[in-house]
Amino acid sequence: MMLNDEYLIHAYGRHDAAIDHGDGVYLYDTEGKKYLDFYAGIGVNALGYGYQAYNEALKKQLDKVLHVSNYFYTPPLLEASEKVVKATKLDQVFFTNSGAEAIEGALKLARKYYFLKHGQADSEIISFHHSFHGRTTGAVKLTGNAHYQEAFGPLMTGVKYANLNDLDSVKALINDHTAAIIVEPVQGEGGVNPCTKTFMQGLRALCDEYGLCLILDEVQSGMGRTGSMMTYFQFDITPDIVCLAKALGCGVPVGAFVANKKYGDALVPGDHGSTYGGNPFVCAAVSTVFDIYQNDHIVEKAHEAGMYLETKLNELEEKCSHVVGHRGLGLMQGILLDEPNSSAYVQKALEAGLIVVSAGADVVRLLPPLIITHKQIDEAMGILEKILK
Ligand SMILES: *Cc1c(COP(=O)(O)O)cnc(C)c1O
């Protein structure tokens, strides 16, 4: 197939392939080439491709109604809301169309709460260096990486950046204007950097002490990827707000911010909205995703596959001179390279039929579908071993 991209804005460095279809954890391009997918559409396709119960539920909803506006209830909306609230152990949800919009909503919620408490709109937010929260102008300001920001100013003010896993650097930024702390339990784009349990519990304690809103960005790390439905279950804490997207809909564009009642009640009619957010089509997907997770034990499988992947990565590190380590949690892993040439390895893997992605110049990131088997992990390791030796 001729890849004519002259009608596209060239905002992406795309691979030289056009994908035709997927089946299980494999993708097929228009030339018929088969790829083992350890990228899952940036962690979206937790159930891989063609998961029968998922496809059937979407086809059923397609014939009922796709969209009605948020001025009506729909059964899929109500079902999905109960399931996402129970899965996060929080109280109330607002559905968005993307991760960045979930972040924007969480930000507005935290600021509105501060406004109600202080009577002034002069709140500050603490974020982290090397974080990633999305590409809208508010989310990009929260993203602690100058490269994503510099051309798009002036951006929102009132954001300060601390160092991950350094509680003192957070404490030093807290003042009377601080409204919230936002953090990824495992930084994704910033190089697959997990927070420690001590640090996360320290953040929770700081937020309790100073009356701040703890916002967790689990857009990439949530929905079972790290071995528990929410990563924060492993840290024995509960945030005030969690942001979800990516695997929440397993392929349909949907995100959510989920809050405890204290923060959720801060928004009243007229404060926030979205034309598409939580329409019956995407909510039918979300609702089905939670059913499948429960019926087919997806989180348990992901936990088990994640442990296997980690042992395999230890072996890879021993066998390959270009690998100096790995870090991550569960099925969210980064292979650390001896040189800043991750994109060259991503390209080599692609040629060998394996889709992976870089996370910074010296990290190759693995985000397989959560249904990945031992055999398929072995297959991926075989390819990586050849190119990293
Ligand atoms: C992908 C991602 C986002 C942004 O999600 P979009 O759907 O691309 O807007 C935000 N936060 C994290 C941690 C992400 O990985």
Please tell me about this protein's structure.
With 389 residues, the protein is α/β, with parallel strands linked by helices. 37% of the residues lie in helices and 19% in strands. The chain contains 13 helices and 17 strands. It is globular, with a radius of gyration of 21 Å. It binds pyridoxal-5'-phosphate (PLP).
CA(first)-CA(last) distance:
34 Å
What is the count of helical runs? 13
Biggest sheet: strands, sense, closure? Answer: 7 strands, mixed
Number of strands: 17
**Average pLDDT number:** 97
Q: How many structural domains in the coordinates?
A: 2
Q: Strand arrangement, largest sheet?
A: 4-12-11-10-7-5-6
Coarse shape? globular
What fold name stands as the CATH topology of the largest domain?
A: Aspartate Aminotransferase, domain 2
Associated small molecules: pyridoxal-5'-phosphate
CATH superfamily of the largest domain: Type I PLP-dependent aspartate aminotransferase-like (Major domain)
Radius of gyration: 21 Å
CATH architecture annotation of the largest domain: 3-Layer(aba) Sandwich
| Structural class determined from secondary elements | alpha/beta
Question: Main traits of this protein?
Answer:
389 residues, alpha/beta, Aspartate Aminotransferase, domain 1, Aspartate Aminotransferase, domain 2, 2 domains, seven-stranded mixed sheet, four-stranded mixed sheet, globular, binds pyridoxal-5'-phosphate
